[in-house]
């Protein structure tokens, strides 16, 4: 982490290697990926979700910095390659998914029958696959439009029996990986759990929601393997909070405690897991 009183000379990148926020006149900059000595520190002056939904407005926002040909970063270049027709189809599917998610949440509150929730869940899954298909397989840039919808799919896991075909155990891992990749996070896998090598670039709140939902799903299985998986995912959420906010584990637990009050038994194991992540 670094503090800058005069930070006007920072160059912009939509896929910046830092997080930043202002505290009075002081710019607080936190690395989201290891930055080697001599490498430039970038900050982002735009929001990737807004850029994905309205590339023209995004270009206008950045015009003072890139007056001739637009932002040269890989994310903006991928938007220009996609073209307006693909962007419009993406926006349409994003809106349809939002409608289904609103309906699903409403029906849950109204305690509707499982058949109705099952139908909405399958509709969500179909639309999500269509939205996902609007990106080429070789496009490795963050997909902020997708991140919220992947996170909502984890909520469906908690609401509807996975055995009824919404999201079964077979594609649970794929859902986790797609959620992580959509946010721009990079990670590696050990036999015990996932570790961040690069913190997410966008939608970190929804990433935390989705990972917590999956942890709860495993915790509620009431098995040793389920508990092991739950600890792994909760440790990843705690690690995310540490990277983004500089939290210690107690502060993270207090912030998320309302969602985790039933899972106090995991707290000590999560703290140990996060300690090993910091040492790594």
TrEMBL record:
InterPro entries: SET_dom_sf. It comes from the Eukaryota. This is Uncharacterized protein.
């Amino acid at each position: 982490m670094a503090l800058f009183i005069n930070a006007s000379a920072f160059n912009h990148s939509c896929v910046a290697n830092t997080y930043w926020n202002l505290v009075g006149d002081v710019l607080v900059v936190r690395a989201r990926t290891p930055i080697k000595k001599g490498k430039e520190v970038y900050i982002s002056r735009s929001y990737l979700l807004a850029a994905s939904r309205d590339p023209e407005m995004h270009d206008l926002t950045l015009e003072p910095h890139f007056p001739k040909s637009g932002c040269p970063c890989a994310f903006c270049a991928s938007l220009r390659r996609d073209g307006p027709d693909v962007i419009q189809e993406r926006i349409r599917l994003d809106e349809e998914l939002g409608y289904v998610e609103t309906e699903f949440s409403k029906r849950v509150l109204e305690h509707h029958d499982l058949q109705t929730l099952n139908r909405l869940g399958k509709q969500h899954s179909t639309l999500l696959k269509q939205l996902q298909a609007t990106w080429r397989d070789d496009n490795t840039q963050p997909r902020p439009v997708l991140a919220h919808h992947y996170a909502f799919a984890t909520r469906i896991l908690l609401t509807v029996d996975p055995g009824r075909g919404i999201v079964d155990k077979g594609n649970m891992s794929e859902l986790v990986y797609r959620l992580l990749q959509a946010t721009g996070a990079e990670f590696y896998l050990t036999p015990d759990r996932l570790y961040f090598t690069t913190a997410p670039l966008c939608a970190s709140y929804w990433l935390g929601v989705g990972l917590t939902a999956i942890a709860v799903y495993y915790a509620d299985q009431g098995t040793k393997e389920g508990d092991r998986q739950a600890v792994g995912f909760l440790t990843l959420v705690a690690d995310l909070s540490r990277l983004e906010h500089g939290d210690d584990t107690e502060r993270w637990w207090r912030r998320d405690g309302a969602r985790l009050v039933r899972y106090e038994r995991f707290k000590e194991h999560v703290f140990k897991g996060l300690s090993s992540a910091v040492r790594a």
